[in-house]
Specification:
There is one protein chain. Strands 2-1-3-6-7-8 form a 6-stranded parallel β-sheet, sandwiched between helices. It has 5 helices and 8 strands, in the order E-H-E-H-E-E-E-H-E-H-E-H-E. A hairpin with a 2-residue loop joins strand 4 and strand 5. By secondary structure, it is of the alpha/beta class. It is globular and about 40 Å long. It has a single domain, classed as Rossmann fold (3-Layer(aba) Sandwich).
């Protein structure tokens, strides 16, 4: 599958449903294919089967695992993938979370408003239109609970 893709990984069906609602109009307007999954293995399979621009939005804490291994594998094999970590856990003592934060491109703190994800997706997909020369130029922001940028 080539083109523009957003892959959302979360083990909560409610969070997946919310993000789907948040991004439905964005994806339709921008010709972006939208995929959801609840496991790291399935997310990896979707990334492997996809070409083009890929944005991976992943929760850190998943049932029985965290997403660090997925993030590491994704960045090693497909470094151009834009990885957003969404988490409610900002514990500086968690070494796996610290490692994940070093590899990702941006972070969204739960709970979040639709504007946070829409902003990041808009900025990322504009990279291909020359607005940014690469995704590292996208402003690094953590979106707080209020939905306002810090």
């Amino acid at each position: 599958m080539s083109g523009k893709h957003i892959i959302v990984l979360d083990d909560s069906a409610m969070i997946i449903e919310i993000i789907t609602i948040f991004l439905q109009n964005f994806c339709e307007r921008n010709n972006v294919m939208f995929h959801t999954t609840s496991t790291s293995m399935e997310a990896l399979g979707k990334i492997q089967a996809t070409t083009g621009q890929i944005a991976l939005i992943t929760d850190f804490e998943l049932k029985g695992e965290d997403s660090l291994d997925l993030i590491q594998t994704t960045k090693e094999k497909w470094p151009e993938t834009f990885v957003i970590l969404m988490t409610g856990y900002f514990n500086n003592k968690n070494s796996r979370l610290k490692k994940a934060q070093q590899l990702i491109d941006n972070t969204i703190k739960k709970p979040f408003k639709s504007s946070a994800i829409q902003y990041l997706m808009q900025q990322y997909f504009q990279c291909s239109q020359g607005v940014f020369s690469n995704k590292k130029e996208i402003p690094q922001k953590i979106f707080p609970m209020s939905g306002r940028m810090t």
